[in-house]
Write a structure and sequence with these properties.
The structure is a homodimer. In chain A, a hairpin with a 5-residue loop joins β4 and β5 (75-81). Chain A starts with a helix and ends in a 15-residue tail after the last helix. The longest helix of chain A has 27 residues, at 124-150. A 4-stranded antiparallel beta sheet of chain A has the order 2-6-4-5. A 3-stranded antiparallel beta sheet of chain A has the order 1-7-3. In chain A, α6 packs across α9 and α7 (185-192) crosses α8 (196-208). By secondary structure, chain A is of the alpha+beta class. The first copy, chain A, has helices at residues 5-8, 24-33, 91-94, 114-122, 124-150, 153-170, 185-192, 196-208, 224-230, and strands at residues 36-40, 45-47, 55-61, 64-69, 75-81, 100-103, 107-113, 178-180, 212-215, 218-221. Chains A and B meet through β5, α4 and α5 of A and β5, α4 and α5 of B. The first copy, chain A, binds a DNA duplex through α8.
Chain lengths: 245, 245
DNA sequence: CGATCGATTGATTTTTGTCAAAGACGGTGG
DNA sequence: CCACCGTCTTTGACAAAAATCAATCGATCG
């Protein structure tokens, strides 16, 4: 009661992030700036690199990814986005993106036209929170760089699963051990920068050793501490509320 | 004449970036916000992960890096910063960083206290340019992710050299083929996520095949086109002025 | 039911890391 | 001036990690 459908849309935005949670008025302001709600089928490119952009999208439900495609058409995931993520807020200041944004699963996004964004950022407090949200993405990029640059294949998977668990938990979509994650082994491979064949072997190994089961769009972490150690995972870069970690 | 020393400080900030160049008044505003100029010896940590921050630093001269250190003390570079880069502008909204920032060479930085930053971002046009500058870092992070995730060791080096060449060129520090870059082979290794031994072999190979000479703090690119192709380099993510590319 | 997509497995090759040891070079102190 | 040192570079031999090639297998879908 008292919670309108409208009120649910930005529910998860910056949820659980250290000192950056939105005030009710700020959420209302953002929700008023929404021009439409769009539904995307799975595996659909929403934004292509280079395209001129006049609006940003906020994920209400579903999984989206940011990818860069190489000369042979092979993709590297440079980000994975969950409900509550303002997936291409950065296009507001960049005007075009140098990567693609696509849905992974069936997705619902809220569209905010850039010309309505001007009014939002006139409020310097809200502007700073929006800025913060894009800096959070950058912090995740850095964690991903560490993952790819310093960890072996199993470490990368471990790190990624810890991160995803923590992020989903922050928005109430993981209980800390088990969560839905509708990615194929090939997606995991494109995230971790290994071949899907190798990814298959790593996931089997994790399963056989009773550490973690990744299977049919469901992840269950059996030994969270072990996984965090194996992936050298430290959640500081997610800027979560001390209580929420 | 007419160009004061003061006027030189922010000279290179956002220089050559598509529609984001600073107006004289904006540069003056930033320069007035500077509280001090600091000199850093080579290889000095300026900011440690987790430290509470009350100011940001702008690089006037020198090379700095952002690094994440693993459990064994091995570092992964997650960014390299040149003169004209507002190296930790993001600390303004983040309040602490999850990575270290250190000098590579002898460096001069201009310090801008966060409480003076408030006045700068009150100007929404300037705020947007500052925001853009942090998004540029994020775009580079993504290019680095592509590099680590999809390229082999030689491709990574090629990509990195193309990027650095383009960035230095934008601020007038490369002629497009030859530039100073005071990095050790170990730095290159920490940037590209390979061992320094392997990096040594790659650099030798580039040299022997007459493609590129990386030696004693000087880089000379003999075949820019080949290097760009080998590293699948596309400068779109640097958001350079069409004329400057 | 064939077709397609994703998962799985084995055999083999390629790339990169590890270990061990010199060589080069500049700077310092005797 | 020169021997010594530390840092950076270079090289070889070998081991480990991951990629590649080639098939199956299983489930789902029209």
């Amino acid at each position: 009661m008292g919670v309108t459908i409208q009120g649910m849309i930005t529910d998860k935005f910056l949820k659980g992030r250290r000192g950056m949670t939105l005030e009710p008025a700020e959420r209302t302001a953002i929700e008023k700036a929404i021009s439409e709600i769009k539904s995307l089928p799975p595996r659909t490119v929403m934004i292509e690199a280079g395209e001129a952009l006049r609006h940003s999208a906020f994920i209400i439900d579903g999984l989206m990814c940011r990818t860069i495609t190489d000369r042979d058409g092979l993709r590297q995931f440079v980000g994975l986005h969950l409900p509550g993520d303002f997936v291409d807020l950065h296009s507001y200041a960049l005007t075009y993106l140098e990567h693609d944004i696509a849905s992974v699963t069936q997705t619902q996004v809220a569209i905010v036209p850039h010309d309505r964004m001007h009014a939002l950022v006139a409020d310097t407090t809200l502007a700073r929170k929006l800025w913060f949200s894009t800096l959070l993405d950058a912090a995740m990029h850095r964690a991903w760089l560490f993952r790819l640059g310093r960890l072996d294949a199993m470490g990368r998977v471990a790190h990624f699963l810890c991160e995803t668990n923590a992020r989903l938990r922050a928005v109430g979509l993981s209980d800390g051990r088990r969560f839905a994650l509708d990615l194929t082994q090939n997606d995991f491979a494109e995230i971790c920068g290994v071949t899907s064949i190798h990814m298959n072997r790593i996931l089997r190994q994790l399963r056989e050793e009773g550490l973690c089961v990744v299977r049919s769009s469901q992840v269950e972490i059996l030994r969270p501490d072990w996984l965090a150690a194996r992936g050298q995972f430290d959640s500081a870069y997610l800027y979560l509320d001390p209580g929420a970690v």
